[in-house]
Amino acid sequence: MAYDYALVHLKYTIPPACLLTFILKPLLTKLDLYKTFILILIAFFTTIPWDSYLIRHGIWTYPPDAIAGPCLFGIPLEELFFFVIQTYITSMLYILLNKPVLHAQFLTNKNDSSPKSRRIRAVGQIILVGCIITSISLVKTGGPGTYLGLILIWACPVVLLTWSFSGYFLIGLPLTCVALPIIIPTVYLWIIDELALGRGTWAIESGTKLGWCLWGSLELEEALFFLLTNILIVFGLVAFDRGLAVLYTFQELFPVIPEMPPPGLLAKAILLDPLKYDMIRVRGIREAVQTLRRKSRSFYLASSVFPGRLRIDLILLYSFCRVADDLIDESHTESDGIVWIQKLTNFLDHVYGSDKAPPSSMHTINDFVEENFPEYARSALTLLPTKPLRSKPFYELLEGFKMDHSFGGTDSSQRARRFPIEDEADLELYAHRVASTVGELCLRLVFHHNTTKLPSDKESILVIAAHTMGHALQYVNVARDTLVDAEIGRVYLPSNWLKQEDLIPQDVVKTPKQPKVEMLRQKLLDWAFKEYGRSRDTMNMLPREVRGPLIVAVESYMEIGRVLRERTGVPSKTRKGRATVSRSRRIWVAWKNLSAA
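Now predict its structure.
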């Protein structure tokens, strides 16, 4: 019986901690461990005085035959471990559920927040102030309300502080990211507490409690204690993430950020007046995230494991590429598409300069964008992280868009004359322009944000590999979208391949599901995996902190090709005629490749 409390940990708290660690191990970063460690220290040293007070005043008791014996300030060793293990479990669950979320998009201030958010924050403050006043009254009165008052007076001021500073941010977060890390550990600990109280592992003295039970022998005060402690942990993590979001989002305010931001810098970010936030940038990031979620679920999943500012810049880069493509693709006439390509070219000329003029000022660039582009596209252009990026891949990308647009108009006579992918060389050129360029730009952002600079020869090897991998990904894209492209009169399968099967592009447009087309799709997938094989091993040269995320980005997309191979062109699911990979399979691919990276 002397190890009864220790057995509670062995049976109930250590196993879920180990399970969460196993699940999260591929995803955990040094920063995740850093903030968990800081929170454990805070929880440990702020709980000791309060817990010691309860024990010394006979509110909590531990039968001698239920504990091993060693104590600190009267607190059993097993209880001290409980402070650590509870904080760890709740932190791991919070980190797991928040991994997909880019916290920068939820930064806000009073002017940007909705009236509903302002009301919720104000009501929360009133309730917490009322709890504090009630707790003082209960403690002063003593008797059966003492323990309840001590719980409230210990927890509510801290909850009020974090709610006041991070309330708008917290309200904006997805409910599952905040509620589940509180509810799941709380209910689990209620069950543990019920079992422990039933066995007499610890007890609350009757003179200091109300005597109300939630169920069985679980005291109301104990239920409230576990709820509030988990709220404290989650609110602390939310405040931490808000501080990191401020540091990563506003580079002009915090130019240099260490890999592990010191507590003082985090406190400065948390306490920064929200009215100083650049809300135009924040709204642009929100729009970029929505674009990513709609247009590329594979890259959206992969983006969740990129660190800090690199993640934001990659999302902004993708948003520009996607918006530019949509402006041209959704043109009603051929001439409209040419106009958009020219406007995008002029935009790049303003940003990078041209033979005729030097780069323009940011003010001039913003004016040009406002005058020439629709509102939904403006932030994608003005927030494009151009400083660390070269201009050549952007201009080549526009050349790829020209190839898309050269398929012609909607009538059959135009289609008969205009299918630009004549042979393998045209297909490779197209893939280089629309995919290899984006791969190179992503890699340049990695080089820019990486704290450990690579030798120039390694960078060159990696850029070449990015070009090759771009071919592979685009070939998968063409194979996936054959049906969708045929609906708009486009055929990216090389015309010489079609000729070998006694087909012409119009045959694919008319009957894209015929067996001969399916055979050519599989041939294209073979090409894709050949290019993938040529460049995959080179990715091991990437810096360790970004190697896993970039491999996940590649493998998530190549998994579409594997699905097409497995189902012989019949996808597991379809979205507007496009093959997709199930969410569970994408998660498995990410976890497996992060584990191996």
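The beta strands are 60-61, 71-72, 75-76, 203-204, 213-215, 218-219, 573-575, 578-580.
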